[in-house]
Input
Amino acid sequence: MPIVVQKYGGSSVADPDKIRNVAQRIVKSHAKGNQVVVVISAMGDTTDDLIELAHKINDRPDNREMDVLLSTGEIVSSALLTMALHKLGYQAISLNGPQAGILTDAAHSKAKILKIESDRIVKELNAGKIVIVAGFQGITQDADMTTLGRGGSDTTAVALAISLKAQVCEKLTDVDGIYTADPRICPEARKIKEIAYDEMLELTSSGNKVLHIRAVELAGHYNMPILVVSSFNDSPGTLIHGGDSMDSMEVHNKVRGIAHDIDVAKVTLTGIPNQPGVAAAIFEPLTKAGISVDTIVQNAFKDNITDLTFTVSRGDLKKANDVINSIAKNIKAKEVVTDAKLAKVSIVGIGMQNTPGYASKMFSALSKAGINIQLITTSEIRITCIIEETRVKEAVLALHRAFELEKD
Amino acid sequence: MPIVVQKYGGSSVADPDKIRNVAQRIVKSHAKGNQVVVVISAMGDTTDDLIELAHKINDRPDNREMDVLLSTGEIVSSALLTMALHKLGYQAISLNGPQAGILTDAAHSKAKILKIESDRIVKELNAGKIVIVAGFQGITQDADMTTLGRGGSDTTAVALAISLKAQVCEKLTDVDGIYTADPRICPEARKIKEIAYDEMLELTSSGNKVLHIRAVELAGHYNMPILVVSSFNDSPGTLIHGGDSMDSMEVHNKVRGIAHDIDVAKVTLTGIPNQPGVAAAIFEPLTKAGISVDTIVQNAFKDNITDLTFTVSRGDLKKANDVINSIAKNIKAKEVVTDAKLAKVSIVGIGMQNTPGYASKMFSALSKAGINIQLITTSEIRITCIIEETRVKEAVLALHRAFELEKD
Output
C-alpha cells in the first residue's frame, strides 16, 4: 500500500472541532487505500503561550529546558487527534519524537535530524493503524528531548516521508496553496499550480510562511514532492516538485511570486576603520550567540572608514545589539544604530536568472510608489529590497501589478 | 551527602510566582548540604483541564492516549521549575519519567512501578545538579509512556527516595501537616506531630487527600519516612514513620483522626435470587471494566432474595451503572438503583483495635446529630459510616467533639 505523510499545522488543530475535522480528513486519505502517517503541530497558540510562560520565570531560559517544555505541545495534540480517530472507529496510535525514532544532534532548540529509525512506525502501519507523530521533536543519543526549531514539524513530515519512501508529503494548512503574493494584502494574488523546489526555497526564505525552509530544502534534496492543500476545503493545492513536469519554460520565464517579511530588524555599525579581521570580529560572536544574520551590506571604504549593516529577525535584535555593543569598542566602531521596524519584499522566479531587466523594473515600480529602498540583496533567482515596514502592502501591490502576476 | 527527595503538588506550582517560591524552598534544602531530587506535579488544574479537553473529543478516550496526554502536564512544570532554579543561579536539570528510569508495567492510567534505574539521576546529582523529575509517569519496556494514576507523583517521590536511599521523602503541599480532621470544615482540628504508616493508610483510604495511598503503602513497606510540610511556610509538619519512636501508647489508645470523603456513589441491586456465583457475576465485569469498588454490603437472604449495595467513586458511577444494567437481567435482579450524592466519614486509630466501644460511640454521636447511617464498614483500626453528602460537615464536627480530638 502506498504511504502518504500528512502534516497539519497548529491552526488546523486549534480546538476540538478542528481536531475532529482533521480526523475526518485523515480518514478520507486512509479510505483511498493509503497507509497514513500524520505529523501534527501544537494546538493554536500553545507554543507561543509556553514560551511566554517560560519567560515569566526566566528571561533567558536554558535551551535544553525550553525543548523539554515546548515538545509537550505536539504530544498533546498527537494524543487528542488519535482519540478523535478512535471515536470515528479507526485504529490509530500516537508516537512522540523519540518513539517515532527521530534521532537528532544535541543542538537544543534547533536540532538537526541525523537519522530516522522507523521500525516502530512501520510496525504500527503494518498492524493497520494510522500513525500520529508529534512533530517538531526528536531525541539525542543521550536520551534528551530536542526540538527542531520553529516550523520544525514540516521538517519532521518531509524527513518521515523520505525515510518511509512515501508517495507524497501533504502539507495541510489554513491556506489552499502557494500564491503569487500574500492574498491577505494583495487581493489580485493568484494560486500557483506547480512550483520548483528552488523557487519555493526563495519564496520561503523571503517571507512566505506556508512551509519551513528546511523542509523545502530536504524535500528538494531527496526529490520528495510536497502538496500544499487546505485542511478546510477540497480546493486543488500547489505541488512543489522537481521540475521535470513543470509548467512550460514560457510560464517560467518571468517572476513567479512575491514574498514579503516584516520580521526584519537592522543593526548598523558606523565609522569602522579598515583593519584585517573586522568582519570576523563582528560575525563570529553573533554566530556563537546563535543569531542568524540575514542580509549583510558593507559600503566601500572611504578614508579607510566604512559602515556595515546587517539584518536579523526582530526577536534576535536585543541579543544582537548586546553582542555588537560588547565588541564595538574593540573594532573601533563609531556608533551602533538599530531599527526594528523594517520589512523586506522579494520577487522570485527561476526564469529571472538568465534574463536582465527584472531588478530595474522592481526598483522603478517601488520608486513610482514613493517607497524608499534601504538595502538590496539578490540571489540567482531572487531580488530583495529592504524597506520601511509601513510601506509593505503598497510595495507588494505595486510589484504584483508591475510583473502582471494576476495573469495566469 | 545525604539525599532528600521533595515532592511538590500542583497547587504549589500553579503559577510563575509559586514556581519561584518552590525554587527558593528547594535551594534552602540544597544549602543545608543535601543532594536534592524534586518530584513535581502538573501546574494547578492542568490535569483536569487536559481530561476535559480529551472528553470533548472522545467520551471514552483510550487509556494509552490519555497517558500520552496527561504526562505532558508534569513535564511542563518540571521544565519551568528547572528554569526558575537556573534563574537563582543553581545548576538543575529536568528529567521526565523515562529519563529518570521509572520503569512500569503497561497498565495505562494506573501503571505500577516495576523498578527504577537511577543511573541518570545519580549522574546528574554527582555533577552537582538539583534534579527535577516529572512525577506521575513512567515508561513500559515497549517505550510507551504510562501514568501511575491520580496522586501518582507521591508514589514517584517515595519510590525514588527508596531507590536513592534518601534520608527522607518530603511532601510539600498547601497544608502544613496531617490534622485530626479537615480544618476547612472542622475549625477545632489539631495538627498531628507523628503518625504511623497504618493509621495514615486508613486516613488516606477514608478520604484524607494529603498523600496518595500507594505512596504511604510503599513508604511503610520500605520504612521510608515521609515528612508532610507546607510549601508556603516553615511550620513544623507531620512525620509519617515506622512507629518505633511514636508517641506513647497512651496517646495511641484512642481515635487519631477523622477522615471524610464526598466522592462516594452507590449502586443497589434489589431482589436478587439466591444462586451460586451471583457475587462473581456482579464484580468480575466491574473489575474488567477497571472500576474500583469500595464498600460492599449484602443483606441476609430473606425468602431466598437479597439486596446488594456497593459504592464506587462518582467518576465511575456511569460506567458501573452501564456494567450492572448489562448483567442485571442475567442474575435476575429486580431493579438497579443509584445514588451519586453520598459521603463517608471515618474514625481511625491503632489504639482502637483492642478497645471496645468506639463503634457504638460513633453511631451514637451521629444519631444525636440526627444523621442517618446508610452503610457501615470497618477495618482493624477504622470505622466508616456512609451518609448523605449534605450532612458531612455536621458529622465530622460531632465526631471530633465526641472523641475529644481537640485535646492534645
Summary: Chain A touches chain B through 38 residues (CB under 8 Å).
